[in-house]
Design brief:
By secondary structure, this protein is mainly beta. The chain is built from one helix and 16 strands. 2% of the residues lie in helices and 39% in strands.
């Protein structure tokens, strides 16, 4: 199964025995710290997240979630939709639609949603495409909702590039998002709402080459791990090569 995607029969978590002795007719459901976007380079799916009520939500373009693709309105090829389950993932229903498909000349290609922000709102971070159909140099957009995704503020550009804005919210209240191409960066927000971003960390410089389709997983209340590519990495022998690198990032919230 794809970590972060709950395709399953029944409503119980996988056990070590399930992993060692898999059954051919059962897809396992793995507990992954969410909203980490663990996806093994599968950008078609967004992580399934649990709300404080116990409901599950997933944001996806309608054609990318087979279980729910027929339940979205007629905009499923151009708009991102939120699907909700109140039955531990057994039954899904269309819950809301992200109302923006394009901002200016840029089409919205992905919407990564983080619910349960410290201030109570939801945060949406959008990847965009330019007029020639590429993400490079296409802006990273932010939008917020105060009614669990029913209505959203007009997206605002916060960074100049937007490839795969995966990330999440740490237990210490700091939200983080990745972005790039060119380069690979991580930006942070500690205002509780997702409006003020800064203290960006450079993993791959803007003049270097990377796919920027990185993955992350939360390791603790103040840290996460990111796996990313560097096409110009020099290894321990001095050889210049493409590489997948892993780095742990520790985040401290502001003290004042």
């Amino acid at each position: 199964p794809n970590p972060g995607i709950w395709v399953h029969r029944g409503a119980t978590w996988a056990t070590p025995d399930d992993l060692q002795n898999p059954q051919h007719d059962v897809a396992l459901r793995l507990r992954i710290p969410t909203p980490s976007a663990v996806r093994l380079h599968d950008i078609g799916y967004q992580p399934i997240m649990e709300l404080e009520s116990g409901d599950l939500i997933v944001s996806a373009f309608g054609t990318r979630l087979r279980l729910a693709e027929q339940k979205a309105p007629g905009t499923k090829r151009t708009h991102c939709h939120v699907f909700r389950s109140s039955s531990e993932g057994l039954v899904w229903r269309h819950d809301s639609t992200f109302p923006f498909a394009q901002v200016g000349e840029y089409a919205i290609a992905q919407v990564h949603i983080t619910p349960n922000m410290p201030a109570g709102n939801w945060l949406a971070v959008a990847r965009t495409w330019n007029t020639v159909g590429t993400t490079a140099d296409s802006p990273l957009l932010m939008s917020t909702s105060n009614d669990e995704g029913q209505r959203w503020t007009s997206p605002v550009a916060v960074r100049a590039s937007s490839t795969n804005p995966a990330g999440g919210l740490l237990a210490n209240g700091v939200a983080y998002r990745m972005y790039g191409r060119p380069g690979q960066f991580v930006t942070f927000c500690a205002d509780g709402t997702g409006k003020q971003w800064g203290n960006d960390v450079t993993l791959v410089a803007a003049d270097a080459d990377t796919c920027a389709n990185s993955s992350d997983v939360v390791l603790g209340s103040d840290r996460f791990m990111i796996a990313y590519t560097d096409y110009g990495h020099r290894d321990a022998t001095g050889r210049l090569r493409k590489a997948v690198l892993v780095r742990e990032v520790v985040v401290e919230p502001p003290t004042t």
